[in-house]
Design a protein that fits this description.
By secondary structure, the protein is mostly helical. 51% of the residues lie in helices and 6% in strands. The protein contains 12 helices and 3 strands, in the order E-H-E-H-H-E-H-H-H-H-H-H-H-H-H. Strands 2-1-3 form a 3-stranded mixed beta sheet. The radius of gyration is 20 Å and the shape is globular. The C terminus is likely disordered.
Length: 279
């Protein structure tokens, strides 16, 4: 582990049910490459609570005892504020080692999960300094209205007479539309998908982006007020261990992952360099 106040460990959601949800997770993992720049910010924009390591002394000072439905992001904002008030600089590091968590098993569960994320962000955003609010609002609007981007591109081609500054608008809409595919490609690279399946994933990107945004848009219109745990899949019970889920279940559902990816992480020579790359 690198020496830092909070270490964010990367994630690798595995399919547990819906293929559409799994594709949304691939897209989200690609989108989360922005976390690699968070070490430059006094207040990182969010955290993924499934795998964070917190400096012991800081955790005791800040604690997790606060009412919220997004405990991970709210904690990192509170911790950064505490360090700032103490006259220090909050140290954030992203560790590029993967935790194998589970994707939501159904589209409904994913909608509820995304709704809670958006609701908690809106509810606790007052903890951020005012200079961060324009950036955070931009992220919120970009996420919730991302399905509109393909429509704007289509309108620019079909009805150019209704678009002011048509040439500039057309370039901007195409650039924004292309970024959606860039995020999907980044997710495919992170997942080490076979190149021959890339065209299928890329073809589905517009619909995947729409599904990924529905829950966030729902949270924007009707914020959730309570915490709801995302349902997990126990897996297949084996005869040898009837009380435990089989690890082979997730491997069966994710045949594109090779054996090395499914095995536990082992220390490598490059880990030290990776851990200190943000210094």
């Amino acid at each position: 582990m690198p020496a830092a106040d909070l270490i964010q460990i990367s994630e690798h959601p595995l399919r547990t049910g819906s293929w559409w949800v799994y594709l949304c997770e691939v897209f989200r993992v690609g989108y989360q490459r922005e976390q690699r720049a968070f070490h430059r910010m006094a207040y990182p924009l969010y955290a993924w609570g499934g795998a964070v390591a917190v400096r012991h002394e800081l955790e005791n000072e800040v604690t997790w005892d606060v009412p919220t439905i997004t405990e991970d992001t709210t904690y990192i904002w509170r911790a950064a504020k505490y360090v700032d008030q103490q006259g220090g600089k909050f140290e954030y590091r992203l560790l590029n080692r993967r935790f194998r968590n589970q994707a939501p098993p159904s589209i409904r569960e994913m909608f509820n999960q995304r709704r809670r994320w958006m609701s908690g962000t809106l509810r606790d955003m007052y903890r951020l300094p005012k200079r961060y609010l324009p950036l955070q609002f931009t992220r919120i609007i970009t996420w919730t209205l991302s399905p509109v981007i393909p429509l704007l591109s289509v309108l620019a081609f079909l009805y150019p007479q209704f678009v002011p500054q048509h040439g500039l608008y057309q370039i901007a809409s195409i650039a924004l539309f292309s970024m959606l595919f860039v995020y999907m490609i980044a997710g495919l690279v992170e997942y080490r998908k076979y190149p021959e399946v890339w065209p299928v994933y890329l073809l589905m990107t517009p619909l995947v982006v729409t599904l990924h945004a529905v829950g966030a848009f729902w949270g924007l219109l009707r914020p959730a007020t309570d915490f709801k745990i995302t349902e997990k899949t126990p897996g297949r019970v084996t005869a040898e261990q009837p009380d435990r889920a089989s690890a082979a279940t997730l491997a069966d559902l994710n045949p594109d992952l090779d054996a090395k990816i499914m095995e536990p992480n082992e220390p490598e020579e490059e880990d030290e360099a990776t851990a200190s790359a943000n210094d």
